Amino acid sequence: MSLQDHIHALHLASFEAQRGAAAQLSEPIARAAELMVASLMREGKILACGQAGSLDLASLFTSLLTHQHQQSRPGLAAITLERFAPMEEAGPAYPRQIESLGHAGDVLLVISGSGNAPGLLAALHCAHDKGMAVVVLAGGDGGQLAEALWEDDAVICTHDLSAARTRELHLRAIHSLCDGIDYLLLGA
């Protein structure tokens, strides 16, 4: 197989993954958008965190909310949590920030490729302790993060085991989530 054929095959595999995700992810993304809009309408905010490349997606998500996605609108209350605590602090950085910034009725978006990152699991538990709803965007079956969710939370699982494909699907899910939030706030 030539390099060109290999790249062509990668694109076809990506298209097939997107096609499969369209039907599979519509309902959980809509559920997550509804949770987030309900919080925003009650003057709540959305906190977002992730690990490695997932932190970049969390930052993209909050940037699209605080600025705009497709339509002009006022900025929405969204904050990306920092991955690392100052040198003098010990322990996970996310729970400390959630304790400081989170309130009952806010929503935490946790993005993870595997769904099994201990620091993200600690963030999820801290959010629950604060009375926050949680949305998990994860690869595979959602791992430990999906297992730790409460009934009123939302989980978006891409069910793809390829790290590259998971990242692609997560990016599409982030854009769909922003579109859903704008749709609920601004209409079609």
Major pleated sheet: 5 strands, parallel
CATH topology call: Rossmann fold
CATH architecture label: 3-Layer(aba) Sandwich
In total, how many beta strands? 5
Radius of gyration: 17 Å
* CATH C-level category: Alpha Beta
- Note the total helix count: 6
Model regions low in confidence, pLDDT < 50 over at least 5 residues: 87-91
Shape, please?
globular
What is the N-to-C order of secondary-structure elements (H for helix, E for strand)?
A: HEHEHEHEHEH
Mean pLDDT, rounded to whole units? 90
| CATH-assigned homologous superfamily | Glucose-6-phosphate isomerase like protein, domain 1
Strand ordering within the main sheet: 2-1-3-4-5
Q: What share of residues are in beta strands?
A: 5-15%
State the domain count. Answer: 1
The proportion of residues forming helix, as a percent range, comes to: 40-55%
Structural class: alpha/beta
Distance between the termini: 45 Å
Describe this protein with a few key phrases.
6 helices; single chain; five-stranded parallel β-sheet; Rossmann fold; 5 strands; alpha/beta; 188 residues
What features would you describe in this structure?
The chain is an alpha/beta fold. The chain has a single domain, classed as 3-Layer(aba) Sandwich (Rossmann fold), CATH 3.40.50.10490. The chain is built from six helices and five strands; from the N terminus they run H-E-H-E-H-E-H-E-H-E-H. Strands 2-1-3-4-5 form a five-stranded parallel sheet, with helices on both faces. Helix 2 links the parallel strand 1 and strand 2. Helix 1 runs parallel beside helix 6 and helix 3 runs parallel beside helix 4. The longest helix is centred in the first third of the chain and has 39 residues. The chain starts with a helix and ends with a helix.
